[in-house]
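Quick one: structure tokens for this chain, please?
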Amino acid sequence: MTIFTCADTFEGILCGVYDAWMSRLGHENVCLELADTGNLRLFAEYRQVEEDPKKAAKVIGAIRKKAGQEVYERVYRASLSCEEQKADRIYRFLVYALHIGPEIVNMLQIPAVYELFRMNRFVANEALHMIEFIRFSRTDGGILFGAVEPRNDVVALMAPHFADRMNAENWIIYDERRRRAVIHQAMGEWIEADLPDDSFRQRLMDSSDQEEFENLWKTYHKHIAIRERTNPRCQMSHLPLRFRPHMTEFQDRRA
């Protein structure tokens, strides 16, 4: 077995697909893994994949030409998954997709197709949840700042929603888990950036006016609740605990 190790990025995975495919070793004799996972197999040959924009562009062109835009979008979303096996699952899916064409999305009886469908759905659903549950604070400089901690790398999927609805605002959505942010300039475009640490967050933190607003929001949230109808189990099913640390109404600001 020859294992190709690639970077945990969309372009890195596509380059891995290119190298594994072009090796001509046979699909059953190759495997695609993310680099630095620490999972080493005995009696396997490892080959490191170098990121090359030209290789990634060739794979993207082949996907769009032979399988269509919908397949391309599903592969992109699957590449944002937190699952360690995503690279090989994308490769197995593309073996079918580039042979069958756009109809592949409906062939869930094929295990490789189902696995990509499952990852794609998981990523897309979490992006929607993060859009619903994110809370923004306005900093001294007038920038709207929101922090999230998603399992999957979904901040780039969240950005178009807020770029459309808050186009006149300067805002930042920060992924605390990956130290990655999407940054939007008012009336302009948004960009994605990797940040070395979260020290910038302290420089953005807001004034006492923002603290007063947060206290008002918490008071409102507390008083609209009907104590006799409190149902913690139901609340957890609609609002899991992992979303609450970054939601204003559940935060306990301490001096």
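The first helix runs from residue 10 to 22.
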